[in-house]
Amino acid sequence: MMERLESWKLALERLRSAEAANWTDAGRLVAEIARMSTDTMLRQAAEQALPVLRQAADNDDHGVTLAARRRIGVVLDVVHDLTAPRFGRRNAAPKKLSSEDRARKMLGLPLAVQLTCEDINRAYRRAAKGMHPDQGGSAEAFIDLAAARDILIHPGAHKDA
C-alpha cells in the first residue's frame, strides 16, 4: 500500500506543478485513488475532487482549472499525511491523568505548578459560582468540584482512581 501511495504522491505532485495539466489524466488518477484507497479520508478527498476534475477536462475556464488545482492539492495533502514518517509509539493510548491532575483540570488550575491552599480555594470559589445548583448547575457536578478541592488540599489522603 505504501508503494502505491508513493506513486500517487509523485503523480499528483507532477499534476499540480505542471503548467498546463492534463485534466483527463488527473481525473483517471483521482478515480483510481477513490476506487483503490483503503483510507477513508483519502477516498473522500478523491471522490470530492472528481466532479471538478471532470469539469476542468471539459472546458478551459480559468476558475474551474483553479478549483481543480486546489482539489488536487487537497488530495495531495491527504497523501502527504499518510506517507509522512511517524515518531513515537503508534496508536498509544494517552497517559491517564492522576486524580490530582484531574482535580486541577476540573478547577482550571495549571498541572505543574505548586499551589497554596488559598490558590485552590480561590479557583474552587470561581468554578463553584457557575456549578452551584442554585445557579443552574447540577448537584453531581458541584459535589465533584468539592471533591476535587479536597483532593488538592489533602493530596495524600486520596488514592488514584
TrEMBL record:
Sequence ranges assigned to domain J in this UniProt record: 102-161
TM stretches of this protein: none
SUPFAM superfamilies reported in the protein's UniProt record: Chaperone J-domain
PROSITE patterns membership: DNAJ_2
Name under which the protein is recorded: Molecular chaperone DnaJ
Organism expressing this protein natively: Bradyrhizobium betae
